[in-house]
From TrEMBL:
Name assigned to this protein: UDP-galactopyranose mutase
Keywords, sorted A to Z: FAD, Flavoprotein, Isomerase
Species this protein is from: Lactiplantibacillus modestisalitolerans
PANTHER family: UDP-GALACTOPYRANOSE MUTASE
InterPro entries recorded: UDP-GALP_mutase, UDP-GalPyranose_mutase_C
UDP-galactopyranose mutase C-terminal domain span: 150-354
Length: 374
């Protein structure tokens, strides 16, 4: 190490980038190492045929936190994209989230009162009483049988790789039901997609003379050296791997993405279409150009099919599985983490928590405040 650094940041995702940026603004010298060949972690986007392709799944920025919204807007201009996914169930198309358009398509109802009566009738006919014992009972108790069978069951079983009757009820505590003709998926005040993609956000955060970035570099190839050579380390990789899985493995769900460029201008007419039947092996198809209202080559489009997958060591750990067993194992790891005075564990993998982008930015800014303004 020819230069003296104050911090080593492991992982050039959103958490690592916010921390590195804020540390550099405070005059700290920061080295960022990233095991992938590129920065930006899972929000990485890459231009293909003039289209920003979300390489690790569809990413829609949404928040009601004005501070976070202002913060991220320093690094990109956001468009007015509103997430309005559509479900394809055996060739029938239904708007999501469940709203008057969905109910009208399903049952021919026209008013909120008619829709509410239909749902109440289905719930009563299903005779689910008492504490729901599994996800199926929970979903039916909340929304009735039609929506459960057509729009929830197949999708959820594919996502988790388990039968709905074997999944715990707590996975869906509530289902967003809207008695208006409003297809906007999120209730947040602010929503959009950065014009020109997400990668620029992280690149701009890291473009500082006090920050050096090294990609294709795995912390675990040289862990002892890094811990020895840097006064402070911000670690955003898997917390169980940091401790060599000594208390056991935390569980993750993984995904496989199948991306294709097609010689058509408009493949599916929407950015996100969910396949909610059990037979289609993927959960959704993303058509990336619709995130920027058709920008890019008018003769071509890029689509990605998303296949849920079991996780095993070596796979990308996309989602933490925050059930009771894993959460209590994580707490044990967090106790070990507290005994590492010079290491800060942050982000989705370091804190084993399903964070959205705005939550990661918020968490990183809280960490920055604790670190520098104490
Ligand atoms: C499929 C999918 C869809 C999503 N959709 C949305 C959405 O619509 N809206 C939203 O707000 N959020 C969404 N998210 C969440 C969003 O991706 C995360 O909030 C955000 O990327 C987390 O940032 P992070 O820095 O914590 O983690 P990451 O982005 O995972 O960054 C961690 C980085 O650390 C690197 N790393 C790990 N281990 C090591 C090591 N040993 N050595 C060196 N580097 C290492 C990794 O390669 C990675 O680049 C989605 C996530 C997924 C998986």
């Amino acid at each position: 190490m020819d230069k003296q650094y104050d911090y080593l940041v492991v992982g050039a995702g959103l958490f690592g980038a916010v921390f590195a940026h804020e540390a550099a603004l405070r005059g700290k010298r920061v080295k960022v190492i990233e095991k992938r060949a590129h920065v930006a972690g899972n929000i990485y986007t890459k231009e293909v045929a003039g289209i920003q392709v979300h390489q690790y799944g569809a990413h829609i920025f949404h928040t009601s936190d004005r501070e976070v919204w202002n913060y991220v807007n320093q690094f990109a201009e956001f468009n007015r994209y509103t997430n309005s996914p559509v479900a394809n169930y055996h060739g029938h198309m239904y708007n999501l989230p469940f709203n008057m358009n969905t109910f009208s398509e399903l049952w021919g109802v026209r008013t909120p009162a008619e829709a509410a009566a239909k749902i109440a009738e289905q719930k009563a006919a299903a005779k689910v009483s008492g504490q729901p014992r599994n996800l199926e009972e929970q979903a039916i108790a909340l929304i009735g049988t039609d929506i459960y069978h057509k729009l929830i069951k197949g999708y959820t079983e594919k996502q988790w790789g388990q039968k709905a009757t074997e999944l715990p009820a707590f996975i869906i505590r509530r289902l967003p039901v809207r008695y208006t003709y409003d297809n906007n998926y999120f209730n947040d005040t602010y929503q959009g997609i950065p014009i020109g993609g997400y990668t620029q956000i992280v690149e701009k955060m890291l473009a500082h003379p006090e920050i050096d970035v090294e990609t294709n570099t795995d912390f675990f190839a040289n862990k002892a050296h890094y811990l020895n050579a840097y006064p402070r380390v911000v670690f955003t990789g898997m917390i169980d791997q940091f401790f060599n899985y000594q208390l056991g493995e935390l569980a993750y769900r993984s995904l496989r993405f199948e991306t294709e460029t097609l010689p058509v201008g408009n493949y599916q007419g929407n950015a996100v279409i969910n396949y909610t039947d059990a037979e289609t092996p993927y959960t959704r198809i993303i058509e990336h150009k619709h995130f920027e209202f058709g920008k890019g080559d008018p003769e071509q489009t890029v689509i990605t099919r998303e296949y849920p997958a079991n996780w095993q060591r070596g796979d990308e750990p996309y989602y933490p599985v925050n059930n009771q067993t894993n959460n209590s194992l994580y707490k044990q790891y967090a106790k070990l983490a507290a005994q590492e005075p010079n290491v800060i564990f942050g982000g989705r993998l370091g804190q084993y928590r399903y964070y959205d982008m705005h939550q990661v930015i918020h968490a990183a800014l809280v960490t920055v405040a604790t670190e520098f303004d104490k």
